[in-house]
Amino acid sequence: MAATPLLLHEEEDAMWDRLEERSSPRSFDATIDDIVAEHSNPIEYISRQGVTKVQEFRVDEELVLSRIEDDSIVTMGANTPFLDYSQAWKKELKTEPYSSMDGRRRVGYSRRRRGATLKTPGMQVLAYVLAIKYPCERDGLLHRVVTLWMENGCSFKTFALPAVQGVIDYKWTRFARRLLLFEMFLYLLWLVSFYSFTIAFQDEDVSLSLREVLQTAAGKIAVCSNIGATVGMIPFLIIERESLISYGVRRWLSAWNLLDTTTYCIQIYIIVCHTCRLQLQSGGISMAAAVLAILLLFRLQYFSRVFPNTRFSFVDDLKAVLSDVRYYILFLIIIITGYAVSFHVLFRDPEDQKAHDEFSSLSKAFVQVVAWSFDGPELAELYKDTKNPIMACILGVSFAFIMGMVLINLLISLMTNSLDSVTAHENLRSLLNRAIVIDELERTIPMWVYRRLDCNPTYLHVLRVDPDKLDTATRDALWPMRIGEELSSADAQSPSTIHDETLREIQNELQELRRLLMERLPASS
User: Fold this and answer.
1) How far is CA 261 from CA 239, 271, 410, 419, in A?
2) What is the biggest distance separating any 2 CA atoms in the chain, rounded to whole angstroms?
3) pTM of the predicted model, to two decimals?
4) 271-299: per-residue pLDDT in tens?
């Protein structure tokens, strides 16, 4: 029977499936420092010996599904690699996950629904243990893999290694998810405060001093909004500073961090200009606010790329797509520039320039041709008030055909193919994004807070549902839950339901046939 991915994590599941044939490690006492010191290729060793399968058993499927949610594994810390795995995991699954902000858990937690339920033999699960001691250290396995990826020493598929997956899942559920939600609250405070400032600043008299501005209701809102934006921005500045110190400039330099730094600089510029009443009449603050209104929305992708069902990372995917089509875009720019020069030269006559001001300068002509690239040229307007109407029309028609019908459509096709290839490994990229976020949080959290989180167990245990051992009904029920799609009525029905409906239809047809026969028998007699 072919393996069916449980929760659409096919690539991650494939990594776990390869563990079935691997031998167990000689010991569980090696730390990540020992592995790096003893092996020339630590990643290869971790991929082969980093995780060991220890037992298979059955668990109530409701307990498992309530904890797995959108992931494919469940993790648990312990002081020893040797446990009564079945009992230990059943106790862990009945304990409330780390979802509250205080980090406390309720023993005996269950999401069991009230009412009668069907009795099932349970779900087949596989228990594993990481053969690495203290795998979740602050400077341990995850930090080393993230650092190696930043140095282009490994691909994003390295984060799908079972040992790395286990550490990511444990840290994400243990503390990173809650801290990131708190960061998102600060971001929303920053976002709402900034937009409140832009609304209040619209009708502000820029000639007034700060003291006079505070005498108005709009001025008070603008100043308070700047304070709120500052409060929301400061934690992100601290995170950026700690990340820069920890990773160094070369590793830190990325599209995300450059956008973030630009956002901080513009926000600080706006706060300083408004508070100190500088450059308010020059329009600089208005241009800065217009740019910041867009950049803050881009920052929302920092959060959405790591949460389930919102894993599309706009900035990362846009960067990859533009990198693939950059030479084609350069070719389009050259074509547009050529046509801009052609129209500018064609309408060089003063009378033509008066009638067609859009071509009076090379910069205006370039902007006009760019607009035509999307809307098409207005051919009828090219005939009017010009000494060369036929040539103008020929240039317009050729541009409409070459750019509008051929080159733009080719660009769309190329970008579509590029986006398909970029998003082909979206689940693995989500693991990478989570790993980066977790490592950034660990770089920023004060040590006394990190110790209080108690997120560095001696050994890490992993539980995974075996997709090959799922019965058909369970597998069919899992897929629509995880994809977020609605099945059609025919697909959603079980074989027994379809069988019952078929019998019901046959019975109805027989009853109709019997009624017709009863109506005709008296007539024939």
Assistant:
1) 11, 16, 35, 27
2) 109
3) 0.69
4) 999 888 887 877 788 899 999 998 888 88
